[in-house]
Amino acid sequence: MITNKKPRSSDTDSIYMKDDRTEMSEDDDRSPSPNSITHDSRPTRTYTTGSGPGTGPGSSSVPEYLAPCPDQVLENVLENVLLFLTSRKDRNAASLVCRSWYRVEALTRSDLFIGNCYAVSPKRATSRFTRIRSVTLKGRPRFADFNLMPPNWGAHLAPWVSAMALTYPWLEKVHLKRMSVTDDDLALLAESFSGFKELVLVCCDGFGTSGLAIVASRCRQLKVLDLIESEVSDDDVDWISYFPDTGTCLESLIFDCVECPIDFDALERLVANSPSLKKLRLNRHVSMGQLHRLMAQAPRLTHLGTGSFSPSEDVGQGEQGPDYVSAFAACKSIVCLSGFREIIPDYLPAINPVCANLTSLNFSYANVSAEHLKPIISNCHKLQIFWVLDSICDEGLQAVAATCKELRELRVFPFEAREDIEGPVSEVGLQAVSEGCRKLQSILYFCQRMTNAAVVAMSKNCPDLVVFRLCIMGRHRPDHVTGEPMDEGFGAIVMNCKKLTRLAVSGLLTDRAFAYIGKYGKIVRTLSVAFAGDSDMGLKYVLEGCPRLQKLEIRDSPFGDAALLSGLHHYYNMRFLWMSACNLSNQGCQQIAQALPRLVVEVIKHEDNLDMDENVDTLYMYRSLEGPRDDVPRFVSIL
Amino acid sequence: MEFERDLHLDATELRLGLPGTATKQSSEKQKPNSNLAKSNKRSLPDMNEESAGSSRENSRTVSSNDKKSHDQETAPPIKAQVVGWPPIRSYRKNCLQAKKLEAEAAGLYVKVSMDGAPYLRKIDLKVYKGYPELLKALEEMFKFKAGKYSEREGYNGSKHVPTYEDKDGDWMLVGDVPWDMFISSCKRLRIMKESEARGLGCAV
């Protein structure tokens, strides 16, 4: 189909795509010509006279009717064809063919994806794409989640929602990740888009229950309100009660991260009034008794977050509590379970009736032991996604490996996130999982000790791995059996897992590990490095060897200016580079900034160290069409 | 190999002063780059371990106090903390830490009486991991022998039997229900004389 193999240079379209490599040459970066056809609405079109070269054939005999010129016909056809193009990558490729394709593609694109909210301005995006129904925006870099960046760095939704309020009256969906969203932003959103259907906020902050109340009351077409790992301030507003009493079209309501208590009666009414509700994830203030009542109102749920999963205080121990087993048995459609925020393990068997159908189970807030887990997991034959705490120990993981043959994604989180303890999971659990779960595609594994052998085993047993993230919590910790660095293990992963696109490394690693990554990690897009490597060579191997690298985040590793400079050829193809507590100097970063004008090079200082000394605490750089942003806080300087 | 120094030998070394105070944390963090540049990173592990030790306490207390605020660090990130390691999101850390702290701080104090003893004692049930430990502690405290427990016969061959009052007000034999359930339902303990305890075996 469309292929474009121009050499790399500055790239506008890549802002809108995740992993596209095609380029747009400089002179394509301009607004559509004034002769372009205007459209009222899809699919009808009006033709302006005199547009495009050439006139309609045979027009003399029919003076009033100007047959459409070939260009217009082409565009008409194109529009109807491009409507079917949904993949971002394909669309970006199509837009590069010629001006006319660019225009039509822009008019037919309905989903806007912006991987870095500072790579392009709201004005530019809304000018090019005028018919957007769904917007996805990502803001802060991931390492900000771990307090590596002072608060108020940026990623404000405000300028976006203002621009969209003017240009996208038919906007239906907004998905945000790591953005700062205020209550005012939510209010503007609720007022501006009458057909608004879907709001998903992942790892966002800056808003509170008052903002939620506005969304609940104003967005009458709301189908999805998903708050995932976001920080929601308690404004003392009972936001659940703001949903209309007459009924909602809610299909998904996820609020397990909301720390404020809610009015249960309002919630029960809401669930009763929402016949389409399929996904409900409650917060930890909902007790088991309350859960029971809600389940009775919504037996067709497919996704359930169980809230606290413990009885409220006033239920006596000997009292005949509600029949939880029947409640779960009645919900025959449940495929995804989560919650268990304050679990009393004795109640766990209540979920047995749904285990056989479960494809996703999230125990990552439940401190359960192997003993509690085994009877449950032994029924979960269809399980594909499993998130759990390391409290289940290697023994628990062995039980998972024995039953969950369909497992695609496993995440093992630490109950105690420390460096110096024995640790309940180890290479034993990893080995067991690799042998039992051959279809594994994604793993995140926190542990205190690991061996190269287990990692190598996984690389061979799980050839479908796309995501491999191993976090050995003790920094610089070697293979605890052989005493060697973890180079060979990670080397095997990049060598054997041909589909690997995301990698996070840990433990004691020398430059050799990076040599392996550079040599074999040809399709790696995201790489996370912490406390690893010996010298500049490590980073050089990666920058020179990984052509698909998009996101590189490094902390506390001995890479300096020379290494940074070795990536000049590649930085325009990346979404961002993060380097904190490495060996960078202002001079080195300046060189990059000067060599690459379309790169925004931010140097972030820790707040009590605002003097411009030679050393760079944190470097965060990203390609952008806009140059330095105008909302820079004082601890950030842009070179 | 050099990294053997990583094997916590430095952390176990006896030093003067409190952990974390004697090391050059401020200099490490103010010029982290020069330290890393000039020395092999493996010569820093003692500093890292030490600062990690103190930082863990700091970061833990800080984040549990500031659960809802954006400013997780009341102390600026430079000083003596391994910020953001291991890489767990604050939300998750706070949820689990809250549980741990609650569990550690709360304690579960119940009164213990023994027939014939002049005054009662109080013990913290949370301190014990299971029945054997609890019984041993009770035996030592009140100087008696509970005898062997069996499901069928209760405590066999002893003059004293440990019992407890549960949430419903019923007197139960210690050991009949799983430990977790016992912890959550026990209101107080009473060490009964064997003669009075008959009929309590196999309590349902």
Automatic annotation (TrEMBL), chain A:
Q: Which residues form the Transport inhibitor response domain?
A: 131-176
What are the recorded Gene Ontology BP terms?
auxin-activated signaling pathway; SCF-dependent proteasomal ubiquitin-dependent protein catabolic process
Q: Which residues are in the COI1 F-box domain?
A: 71-110
Task: Give a Pfam family name.
Answer: Transp_inhibit
> SMART domains, alphabetically?
LRR_CC
CDD domains, A to Z: F-box_AtTIR1-like (cd22159)
Signal sequence annotation: none
Primary localization class, coarse:
nucleus
Q: In which pathway does it act?
A: Protein modification; protein ubiquitination
One Gene Ontology CC term in the entry: SCF ubiquitin ligase complex
The keyword Mitochondrion is assigned to this record: no
UniProt keyword list: Auxin signaling pathway, Nucleus, Ubl conjugation pathway
**Basic and acidic residues composition-biased segments:** 8-24
Question: Nucleus: present as a keyword of the record?
Answer: yes
The protein, known as = F-BOX/TPR REPEAT PROTEIN POF3
List the top taxonomic levels of the source: Eukaryota, Viridiplantae, Streptophyta, Embryophyta, Tracheophyta
From TrEMBL, chain B:
Q: Which GO terms describe its biological process?
A: auxin-activated signaling pathway; regulation of DNA-templated transcription
This protein's assembly is summarised as: Homodimers and heterodimers.
Cite a single Pfam family from the UniProt record.
AUX_IAA
Identify the SUPFAM superfamilies for this entry. Answer: CAD & PB1 domains
Where do Basic and acidic residues bias regions lie?
Answer: 1-13
UniProt keyword Ribonucleoprotein, yes or no: no
Record keywords: Auxin signaling pathway, Nucleus, Repressor, Transcription, Transcription regulation
Q: Where in the cell is it found?
A: Nucleus
Task: Give Gene Ontology CC terms.
Answer: nucleus
Species: Salix viminalis
- The region called Disordered is annotated at 1-81
PB1 domain segment(s) = 107-194
InterPro entries documented for this protein? AUX/IAA_dom (IPR033389), AUX_IAA (IPR003311), PB1-like (IPR053793)
Claim: Transcription is one of the keywords in the record: yes
Q: Which family does it belong to?
A: Belongs to the Aux/IAA family.
Q: Where in the sequence does UniProt note compositional bias of the Polar residues kind?
A: 51-64
Q: Which protein are we looking at?
A: Auxin-responsive protein
Q: What is the lineage of its organism?
A: Eukaryota, Viridiplantae, Streptophyta, Embryophyta, Tracheophyta
> What PANTHER family does UniProt report for this protein, alphabetically?
AUXIN-RESPONSIVE PROTEIN, AUXIN-RESPONSIVE PROTEIN IAA17
Write out the function statement from the record.
Answer: Aux/IAA proteins are short-lived transcriptional factors that function as repressors of early auxin response genes at low auxin concentrations. Repression is thought to result from the interaction with auxin response factors (ARFs), proteins that bind to the auxin-responsive promoter element (AuxRE). Formation of heterodimers with ARF proteins may alter their ability to modulate early auxin response genes expression.
